[in-house]
Amino acid sequence: MKTRYRTAISTKALVCAGLVTGAFSAFSPAAIAQTVDENASNDITVTARKRSETAQTIADPISVVTEAKIAGADLRTLQDAVRLTPNLVVLDGLYPGYKTISFRGFTTLGRDGEFPFATVVDGVVQPGQMFFQQDLVNVRQIEILRGPQGTLYGGGAIAGAINVVTRKPTDTFAGTASFQYLNGDEKRGLVGLSGPIVKDKLYFSTGASAYKTDGLIDNLANDKNADFGEGLTTRSSLIFTPTSDISFALSASTTDSKNGGLWLAPVPDEDFKDVIPLPSENQAGIVRSKLRAYSLKTDWDIPGFATLTSVTAYSRGREYTTADADFTAANIASQTVRFVDTTWSQELRLTSDSSGPLKWNAGGYYQDEKRDYQSSYDPVGGVSSLNDNLRHYETFALFGQLSYELTDRLELTGGFRYDWENQSYLDRLTGQILKQKFSEPQGKASVSYKWSPDLFTYATYSRGYRKGGFNPSSSAETLLFYDPETADNYEVGFKSNFGGNLVTLNGAAFYTDFKGQQFSTSRVIENVGIFTAISNIGKTQVVGAEAELSIRPMRGLSLSGSLGYSDVKIKDFVPENPDLYRNNVIPQIYRLTAQAGVDYEAFLADDASLLFHGDVSHRGNVYWDVQNELETGPKTFFNAKLTLRKGPWSISAIGRNLSNERTPMAVGPHALGNATLASYNPPRQYGVEVGMKF
């Protein structure tokens, strides 16, 4: 049941940030020392469904990025890590902590909207968008589940879930270090160390990465490049195992950064497809971020029955932005934005052991989140327009999921979750308080069949949900509530191995029925600012398919490829005009994605080897407005890394975006009437890396 309000608004709110919807890989010479045959057995264990399972025998499409791939392919962030995943594109939006996402027909909605997928680090769901920018420090594996995962992860997992598993502390001392230098005067470094504090009882791991860059995108009206930046990320953990049945894992991560951002350049609508505008802003955009996240996970193994898990987490993210507000070289207006997100959560979960035909888990979840938002639009010689509000979100949920093997080949799975959401909004400028409530069921049902050890098929129904919310108000505008969106997903798929696991081929076809799909619009009001609003589309449908192929023809050589297609069409726009934009494509959705990669290790004399990684990503055309008038054509990106390893040392050559493709990352469609505001990705980058293990 839900309480629904309708008003009309826009908000200057995040000013630019609302127009559209860091970065370092945990380089590990130890990981590079593994050959690319490491997965030849195809028995990759994943935990994305909150129990240990084999990736090839779960009824969900899942892509796995291993530690060796993270190091060998120069994957710095989650954004890099998912670049070879079908039907998933993640771009920097207006700055590193602000993403533009296309995921099976779902997208981001600016600063105030929710991600269409859950990001989970060691069992802790990360709140908001800010924490997605953190570097891949001490990461062992990344698991990308596609399709609604709301049963286990709640309202933030309507399109899927990205599960990050960090490296566990070791019982012996081990460490890594690396340094990169790239054009743009970019310097990156990482160190990591793990080992025992008390042998067999208490272990630690810690890692830190840092970067500083002048950037690669010129600002024609300022000495600073638009994409300059510097930052430091740390991740540390302690694991205490007082007995064989009980373990405690205490984790902490931090990020402090200062990056260029909120830069936009106007381009006439008729030239949008062919012109790449350069920013020309007299005031450089600066985004200062400070992120803190802490968690305590306790596991109590009850022999012969189940494991009781408690996860307590607290996080605080702060971003402070100063930037140009007229997007020209003239000194007309500036803007400031301050955003603070404070969240704590508690989960209790009971997970059965893996013996017997029945496997289950059940639990409860509570989250308390506060979003403190302040902004100002300051015209030179004019009156500032202010925004000051506090939003409070409380979520309660009960969930459960079970699987039963009717035979050693046939398995049934069912799951159910119910979320209750209480929201309040305080406008500090007017004293106005607004409230709304939502409650939504989510569920899952699947049947899977193992035809042979090498062929697995499944059919799944799942329901996902993304919560509604508030658009920030201003002193000149009224508030708009927007409703939740729901998605019913129907999917069939297969997973297969051939030639003694030398070839892996997985595929899926899906149909998704949306109700109330959320999307954002923006406009500029002269002398007042940029206003954005999230609203709902009545009905949308997605028909899609995807396939992943991996071939390991010989020791040291691995070939991979994937293909994804999502046809996303509006079927019922708004009650007042359901036929408007019928069969138009949802903005920011890449309907076609295609990827290919190669990894090769040539073994040289003694303990030396030469490793090569190369990958290519192709994206089809994309529309940026609901009218389907602003279009970007197909783009193809190349990346490569060549590494010479000798004993504990390695040296690498790195190339990123070698095809020098330029594509929009953040777009404010028709924001200036007959012109659009847009920012673009950086050009080609190349450099070297030196690493060691000890």
What name goes with the CATH superfamily? TonB-dependent receptor, beta-barrel domain
What is the count of DSSP helices, taking H or I runs of 4+ residues? 4
The CATH class label is: Mainly Beta
Question: Which sheet architecture does the biggest sheet show?
Answer: 22 strands, antiparallel, barrel
Shape: globular
Architecture, according to CATH?
A: Beta Barrel
Q: What would you report as the Rg, rounded to the nearest angstrom?
A: 24 Å
Quantity of strands, as a count: 39
Indicate the structural class.
mainly beta
Helix proportion: under 10%
Task: Estimate the strand proportion.
Answer: over 45%
Low-confidence stretches: 1-41, 474-478
Give the integer mean of the pLDDT values.
Answer: 88
Number of domains: 1
Our measurement of the CA-to-CA distance between the termini, rounded to an integer number of angstroms, reads 57 Å
CATH topology: Maltoporin, Chain A
